[in-house]
Write a structure and sequence with these properties.
Blueprint: E1 3-6, H1 19-24, E2 26-29, H2 36-48, E3 56-63, E4 66-73, E5 89-90, H3 95-108, E6 130-131, E7 134-135, H4 138-142, H5 156-160, H6 167-175, H7 180-187, H8 204-218, H9 222-234, H10 245-248, H11 270-273, E8 276-277, H12 279-289, H13 295-301, E9 311-312, E10 317-321, E11 324-332, E12 337-343, E13 348-354, H14 361-377
Antiparallel strand pairs: 1-2, 3-4, 3-13, 5-8, 6-7, 9-10, 10-11, 11-12, 12-13
């Protein structure tokens, strides 16, 4: 049975959520508060919900002893339905960590190389995907340093407007009815924004292109590769690019930063940000990612670009916390936010799913995981 308590803070960080509604909202939780881990999660979740813009969150905690999902808040504000371990969320750009793992398999199996000309994995010539003799590579695509635009078709003008109220509708309209054939047609006319390897430029299009390359070298659709290499072996039956009616019935309502229900990602988000999943399913993915005896997993975590604060591996961000690596990847859609945070040295990891895109939610989810991990590392 779920425990109820009043939220500790009613300060709205989202302008359109009324103070009156925040004052009466209750924070629901299935945390039994029996163990040190239970209590560490509860403290971190309480701090997270100090921002009353947040709606709900599901937190999967993976330790050497097992897995547990903790649920807080609501899956739907109108009905008050609670979040659950099998609540279905968009995981947005956490999808890129799945694509990167498939790419790591391809490198390990000799199907691809990190530094070679990526155009060899495409059908037909793409002279436009090189500058001054420097072509795009798998390594530059994985680290957002290929020079590829953010999206194909280009979405720069929409993002330049900086209007979160209109952005979802315009992006959905831009991608309406588009598929891989449209992507590849437009790819021929794409201009790189910088020389591959020179600059970091976030690119969903780059990960869509990795998906295309994987299809060519394995002679199978991306969805099939995903199922054969990750989802089926791990028993992730609730992770998919297309929701079945049964999974759609478990879908949370995502909320934008103004507290309004938000639409889902475009149907063609695919290898870049198109996956749906549950905290229970992602616990299996986290357990798998913690096993660096798997050569493909270890390869995907190996830094390719070194920075002052963190390194970038095959999509993953690698930082040091107390002299030990913390490996993470976040995501955000129109109404959901996500994080996967791994601490391989401790064999502990976290998957965190939220049904809002309040200001800073992705970072707050990462902080929640770090706070729990710090509590478990404390003597």
């Amino acid at each position: 049975m779920k425990r109820h308590r009043f939220a500790l803070a009613t300060v709205a960080l989202c302008a359109s959520v009324s103070t009156a509604s925040l004052a009466t909202d209750q924070l629901q939780s299935d945390n039994p508060l029996r163990t040190g881990m239970n209590k560490a999660v509860d403290r971190a979740a309480t701090a997270y919900f100090a921002n009353a813009c947040h709606a709900g969150v599901s937190v999967a905690v993976v330790t050497p002893e097992g897995e547990r999902v903790y649920d807080y808040g609501v899956a739907n504000r109108k009905t008050g339905a609670p979040t659950k371990a099998d609540s279905v969320y968009e995981i947005a750009s956490v999808t890129k960590s799945f694509t990167a793992t498939l790419a790591a398999f391809a490198v390990h199996e000799g199907k691809m190389t990190l530094d070679g000309d990526f155009r060899r994995y495409l059908d037909g010539p793409y002279p436009n995907l090189a500058i001054d003799g420097h072509p795009i590579t798998l390594g530059t695509l994985l680290t957002h340093r290929s020079g590829m635009p953010r999206d194909i078709p280009k979405s720069d003008a929409i993002f330049a407007e900086k209007d979160p109220r209109t952005l979802p509708g315009k992006l959905l309209a831009l991608n309406q009815g588009r598929g891989e054939k449209d992507f590849l047609r437009d790819l021929h006319h794409t201009t790189l924004q910088s020389k591959p390897g020179d600059e970091e430029r976030y690119s969903n299009a780059g990960f869509m292109l990795i998906g295309v390359g994987l299809e060519r070298v394995y002679h199978a659709p991306y969805a099939t590769l995903l199922d054969q290499r990750i989802l089926s072996p791990l028993g992730m039956a609730s992770t998919t690019l297309r929701l079945s009616p049964a999974l759609a019935a478990k879908r949370v309502t995502g909320y934008d930063m103004f507290g309004k229900p938000a639409p889902a990602h475009p149907d063609n988000a695919g290898a870049a940000w198109g996956l749906w999943s549950t905290a229970a399913d992602l616990a299996r993915f986290v357990r798998w990612q913690l096993d660096e005896s798997n050569p493909a997993i270890a390869l995907s975590h190996r830094p390719l670009v070194h920075g002052s604060d963190e390194d970038v591996a095959m999509a993953w961000h690698v930082a040091k916390v107390n002299d030990a690596p913390m490996i993470s990847h976040g995501g955000g859609s129109f109404g959901t936010s996500s994080q996967v945070v791994l601490f391989p040295h401790a064999k502990r990891g976290y998957a965190l799913l939220a049904n809002d895109t309040c200001k800073g939610t992705e970072g707050a989810l990462k902080r929640l995981a770090m706070d729990v991990e710090q509590a478990n590392d404390s003597p």
